Protein backbone atom coordinates (compact mmCIF):
# COMPACT_ATOMS: atom_id res chain seq x y z
CA UNK A 1 0.00 0.00 0.00
CA UNK A 2 2.92 2.36 0.70
CA UNK A 3 4.30 1.92 -2.81
CA UNK A 4 0.86 2.73 -4.23
CA UNK A 5 0.64 5.91 -2.12
CA UNK A 6 4.09 7.01 -3.21
CA UNK A 7 3.23 6.30 -6.84
CA UNK A 8 0.04 8.34 -6.62
CA UNK A 9 1.96 11.19 -4.97
CA UNK A 10 4.67 11.17 -7.64
CA UNK A 11 2.09 11.10 -10.44
CA UNK A 12 0.15 13.95 -8.87
CA UNK A 13 3.32 16.01 -8.58
CA UNK A 14 4.28 15.34 -12.19
CA UNK A 15 0.88 16.35 -13.53
CA UNK A 16 0.61 19.42 -11.29
CA UNK A 17 4.04 20.88 -12.01
CA UNK A 18 3.22 22.26 -15.46
CA UNK A 19 0.06 24.03 -14.24
CA UNK A 20 1.90 27.35 -14.00
CA UNK A 21 2.79 27.04 -17.66
CA UNK A 22 -0.86 26.60 -18.58
CA UNK A 23 -1.96 30.05 -17.41
CA UNK A 24 -1.54 33.44 -18.99
CA UNK A 25 -1.42 36.91 -17.56
CA UNK A 26 -3.72 39.32 -19.40
CA UNK A 27 -4.34 43.01 -19.00
CA UNK A 28 -7.93 44.24 -18.69
CA UNK A 29 -9.52 47.63 -18.15
CA UNK A 30 -10.03 48.47 -14.49
CA UNK A 31 -12.69 50.69 -12.91
CA UNK A 32 -10.51 53.82 -13.08
CA UNK A 33 -9.95 53.23 -16.79
CA UNK A 34 -13.65 52.59 -17.34
CA UNK A 35 -14.53 55.88 -15.64
CA UNK A 36 -11.97 57.72 -17.80
CA UNK A 37 -13.57 56.30 -20.94
CA UNK A 38 -17.11 57.01 -19.71
CA UNK A 39 -16.24 60.62 -18.90
CA UNK A 40 -14.60 61.16 -22.30
CA UNK A 41 -17.65 59.70 -24.06
CA UNK A 42 -20.04 61.85 -22.03
CA UNK A 43 -18.05 65.01 -22.79
CA UNK A 44 -17.87 64.16 -26.49
CA UNK A 45 -21.61 63.52 -26.59
CA UNK A 46 -22.31 66.84 -24.83
CA UNK A 47 -20.05 68.75 -27.25
CA UNK A 48 -21.95 67.22 -30.17
CA UNK A 49 -25.32 67.87 -28.50
CA UNK A 50 -25.95 64.14 -28.91
CA UNK A 51 -27.50 62.52 -25.84
CA UNK A 52 -26.27 58.93 -25.76
CA UNK A 53 -26.25 55.67 -23.89
CA UNK A 54 -22.64 54.77 -23.12
CA UNK A 55 -21.34 51.38 -22.02
CA UNK A 56 -17.78 50.42 -21.07
CA UNK A 57 -16.84 46.75 -20.79
CA UNK A 58 -13.72 44.78 -19.91
CA UNK A 59 -11.91 42.57 -22.42
CA UNK A 60 -14.41 39.73 -21.87
CA UNK A 61 -17.35 42.02 -22.61
CA UNK A 62 -18.56 42.31 -19.02
CA UNK A 63 -20.04 45.69 -18.07
CA UNK A 64 -17.81 47.99 -16.00
CA UNK A 65 -19.56 51.36 -16.39
CA UNK A 66 -22.74 52.68 -17.95
CA UNK A 67 -24.62 55.93 -18.37
CA UNK A 68 -27.83 56.75 -20.20
CA UNK A 69 -27.98 60.49 -20.69
CA UNK A 70 -31.28 62.38 -20.49
CA UNK A 71 -33.32 62.30 -23.68
CA UNK A 72 -32.05 58.94 -24.95
CA UNK A 73 -34.44 56.27 -26.17
CA UNK A 74 -34.73 53.35 -23.72
CA UNK A 75 -33.64 50.80 -26.35
CA UNK A 76 -30.32 52.63 -26.73
CA UNK A 77 -29.17 51.22 -23.39
CA UNK A 78 -29.18 47.62 -24.65
CA UNK A 79 -27.68 48.67 -27.98
CA UNK A 80 -24.74 50.44 -26.31
CA UNK A 81 -23.97 47.44 -24.10
CA UNK A 82 -24.11 45.00 -27.01
CA UNK A 83 -21.96 47.24 -29.22
CA UNK A 84 -19.29 47.41 -26.50
CA UNK A 85 -19.48 43.67 -25.84
CA UNK A 86 -19.10 42.84 -29.54
CA UNK A 87 -16.14 45.22 -29.98
CA UNK A 88 -14.38 43.68 -26.97
CA UNK A 89 -14.96 40.06 -27.87
CA UNK A 90 -14.18 40.40 -31.57
CA UNK A 91 -11.38 42.89 -30.82
CA UNK A 92 -12.40 45.25 -33.61
CA UNK A 93 -14.76 48.15 -34.23
CA UNK A 94 -18.36 47.22 -34.88
CA UNK A 95 -18.22 49.44 -37.97
CA UNK A 96 -16.04 46.76 -39.60
CA UNK A 97 -18.70 44.16 -38.95
CA UNK A 98 -21.45 46.36 -40.38
CA UNK A 99 -19.27 47.04 -43.44
CA UNK A 100 -18.68 43.30 -43.91
CA UNK A 101 -22.41 42.64 -43.87
CA UNK A 102 -23.06 45.50 -46.30
CA UNK A 103 -20.43 43.98 -48.61
CA UNK A 104 -22.19 40.62 -48.63
CA UNK A 105 -20.78 38.72 -45.67
CA UNK A 106 -24.25 38.00 -44.34
CA UNK A 107 -23.13 35.14 -42.07
CA UNK A 108 -22.45 37.80 -39.43
CA UNK A 109 -26.20 38.39 -39.22
CA UNK A 110 -26.71 34.93 -37.73
CA UNK A 111 -23.73 35.11 -35.34
CA UNK A 112 -25.64 36.69 -32.47
CA UNK A 113 -23.44 39.78 -32.37
CA UNK A 114 -24.17 43.49 -32.61
CA UNK A 115 -23.45 44.61 -36.14
CA UNK A 116 -24.18 48.33 -35.74
CA UNK A 117 -21.61 51.12 -35.72
CA UNK A 118 -20.67 52.64 -32.37
CA UNK A 119 -18.56 49.94 -30.69
CA UNK A 120 -14.82 50.51 -30.34
CA UNK A 121 -12.13 48.37 -28.67
CA UNK A 122 -9.81 50.04 -26.16
CA UNK A 123 -6.15 49.11 -26.57
CA UNK A 124 -3.15 49.44 -24.28
CA UNK A 125 0.23 48.44 -25.70
CA UNK A 126 -1.60 47.01 -28.71
CA UNK A 127 -3.67 44.66 -26.53
CA UNK A 128 -7.46 44.95 -26.26
CA UNK A 129 -8.24 45.69 -22.60
CA UNK A 130 -11.91 46.58 -23.02
CA UNK A 131 -14.34 48.41 -25.28
CA UNK A 132 -16.85 51.23 -25.38
CA UNK A 133 -20.27 51.19 -27.01
CA UNK A 134 -22.38 54.24 -27.81
CA UNK A 135 -25.99 54.44 -28.99
CA UNK A 136 -27.87 57.66 -29.52
CA UNK A 137 -28.63 59.78 -32.54
CA UNK A 138 -26.89 58.36 -35.61
CA UNK A 139 -24.31 55.76 -36.55
CA UNK A 140 -21.80 58.46 -37.52
CA UNK A 141 -22.21 60.29 -34.22
CA UNK A 142 -22.09 57.05 -32.22
CA UNK A 143 -18.86 56.05 -33.98
CA UNK A 144 -17.28 59.46 -33.43
CA UNK A 145 -18.08 59.46 -29.72
CA UNK A 146 -16.84 55.87 -29.28
CA UNK A 147 -13.61 56.62 -31.14
CA UNK A 148 -12.95 59.69 -28.98
CA UNK A 149 -13.73 57.76 -25.79
CA UNK A 150 -11.49 54.79 -26.69
CA UNK A 151 -8.64 57.21 -27.38
CA UNK A 152 -8.99 58.67 -23.86
CA UNK A 153 -6.93 55.75 -22.60
CA UNK A 154 -3.34 56.34 -23.72
CA UNK A 155 -2.06 53.45 -25.80
CA UNK A 156 0.69 52.84 -23.26
CA UNK A 157 -1.20 53.44 -20.01
CA UNK A 158 -0.94 50.35 -17.80
CA UNK A 159 -2.25 52.38 -14.84
CA UNK A 160 -5.81 52.14 -16.26
CA UNK A 161 -5.63 48.39 -16.67
CA UNK A 162 -4.99 45.48 -14.35
CA UNK A 163 -3.44 42.08 -14.91
CA UNK A 164 -5.53 38.97 -14.37
Question: What does this 3D model show about the protein?
Answer:
The chain contains five helices and six strands. The chain is α+β, with helices and mostly antiparallel strands and 164 residues long. A hairpin with a 4-residue loop joins strand 2 (53-58) and strand 3. Helix 2 packs across helix 5. It is globular, with a radius of gyration of 21 Å. The protein starts with a helix and ends with a strand.
Question: Keywords for this structure?
Answer:
about 160 residues; alpha+beta; 4-stranded antiparallel beta sheet; two-stranded antiparallel sheet; 6 strands
Element layout with pairings:
Blueprint: H1 2-16, E1 27-29, H2 31-47, E2 53-58, E3 63-68, H3 75-90, H4 94-102, E4 119-124, E5 127-135, H5 139-150, E6 161-163
Antiparallel strand pairs: 1-6, 2-3, 2-5, 4-5
Helix pairs in contact: 2-5
**How big a fraction of the residues is strand?**
15-25%
Largest β-sheet summary: 4 strands, antiparallel
Coarse morphology: globular
Residues in helix, %: 40-55%
Compute the separation of the termini in Å. 42 Å
Q: What is the N-to-C succession of helices and strands? A: HEHEEHHEEHE
- Which runs of at least 5 residues are low in confidence (pLDDT < 50)? none
Short description:
It contains five helices and six strands. It has about 160 residues and is of the alpha+beta class. A hairpin with a 4-residue loop joins strand 2 (about 55-60) and strand 3.
